[in-house]
Amino acid sequence: MSVYDEADLYAAAFDWPVDDEVDWLLATVGPVASVLEPFCGHARFAPAFVARHVRYVGVDRSLAMLARVPRRDGVIVVAADARDFEAPGAPFDLAWCPVNSVTHLVDEPAALAHLVCVRRHLRTGGAYVIEIEFVNHDGPWPGAGHDKGHWSMPGPDGTTVVAAWRRISCDRAARTGLEHARFELRSPDGTVRRVVDEQYVMRTWSWSDTQRLAAASGFAIESVHDHRATGRLPVDPGPHLENDGVNRYVVLRAL
Ligand SMILES: C[S@@+](CC[C@H](N)C(=O)[O-])C[C@H]1O[C@@H](n2cnc3c(N)ncnc32)[C@H](O)[C@@H]1O
Fold first, then answer.
1. Which protein residue has the closest C-alpha to ligand 1 atom 12?
2. Range 147-203 classified under CATH 2.20.220
3. Which of 16, 60, 119, 233 is the most exposed place for a label (fewest CB within 10 A)?
4. What does the pLDDT read at residue 140?
5. For residue 92, what are the contacts with CB-CB under 8 A and spacing of at least 6?
6. Cα 41 to ligand 1 centre (Å)
7. Measured between alpha carbons, how far is 111 from 95 in angstroms, rounded to an integer?
């Protein structure tokens, strides 16, 4: 059973506030009246965008995740593959891809097809902001298998979702990592009620992959920002950001 088939558990685990992240996005990329979110899942960002008068269109291939999307004015979702989709309402001002989702596309042609498709949906001067961990496949990498996140999310009914996401191993030739996700729903007394446990193959993006993919799909890399935990400050872009296990935000500007 996939984490994304267990959409209720996923939604409970990823239930942290996102207003601050949306405010940062809007302040960073300029005037935004419309946003496209590929890999949108249950569209947890949609209410925050709509509350700021930003029209929201999400794309995801998981019908279970899309079934949990809040139905409200200003929110449209489309069931489609991120490599090739048609989203209504283009051209968009902003596209947004949080939590490393773009690395679900495990080979370079897939990643490039996705970026070309997103570029086609943006106005010239629009932005695509992706949250990603830079990984270098060629240099030394002592932390190849590491904890990508371990957290607990209390629910309104006294239950807790305990989530853990880690990289088990890497295939450096294939430029992929094998990742393990485990979510447990626990009763107030700690009894485990439901478990979803899954391994995924994800692509690893180095800094030079990012540069090459951006250039090939009609984007310029405008800026790179540190992770939410460290204030999202702009950082010097480059290969020194690789292999430290930290997600960064990359602002791609549509040429
Ligand atoms: C980590 S979740 C992120 C969901 C949402 N953006 C969020 O922040 O909660 C990744 C999502 O990507 C979707 N996904 C994975 N591969 C996809 C593909 N090739 N095309 C469309 N959606 C895909 C999954 O169904 C899942 O909902």
1. 39
2. no
3. 233
4. 66
5. 34, 35, 36, 57, 121, 122, 123, 126
6. 5
7. 15
Measured in Å, residue 189 CA sits from the centre of ligand 1 at 32
Question: With a 6 A CB cut-off, is 40 part of the ligand 1 pocket?
Answer: yes
**Residue 35 neighbours by CB distance under 10 Å:** 29
* Lowest mean pLDDT segment, chosen from 39-43, 49-53, 199-203: 199-203
**CB of 4 shorter than 6 A to ligand 1:** yes
> Which residues of the chain form CATH 3.40.50.150?
7-136+205-254
Closest residue by CA, ligand 1 atom 8 = 98
In CATH, the architecture of 7-136+205-254 is 3-Layer(aba) Sandwich (3.40)
- Distance from the alpha carbon of residue 3 to the mean position of ligand 1, in angstroms: 10
Q: Is the pLDDT of residue 145 over 70?
A: no
- Looking at residue 251, its pLDDT comes to 98
Give the chain's count of helices (H) and strands (E). Answer: 6, 12
Q: With a 6 A CB cut-off, is 44 part of the ligand 1 pocket?
A: yes
Q: Choose one of 9, 60, 131, 176 to mutate for the ligand 1 pocket test, by most ligand atoms within 8 angstroms of C-beta.
A: 60
Ligand 1 close to Cβ of residue 96 (< 6 A): no
**Residue-wise pLDDT tens digits, 160-182:** 999 998 888 888 888 998 999 99
**Cβ(59)–Cβ(45) below 8 Å:** no
What does the pLDDT look like over 49-59, one tens digit per residue? Answer: 999 999 999 99
Any atom of ligand 1 within 6 Å of the Cβ of 92: no
Distance CA 184, CA 150 (A): 12
Q: Give me Rg for the CA atoms of the chain.
A: 18
Q: What is the pLDDT of residues 100-122, one digit of tens each?
A: 999 999 999 999 999 999 999 99
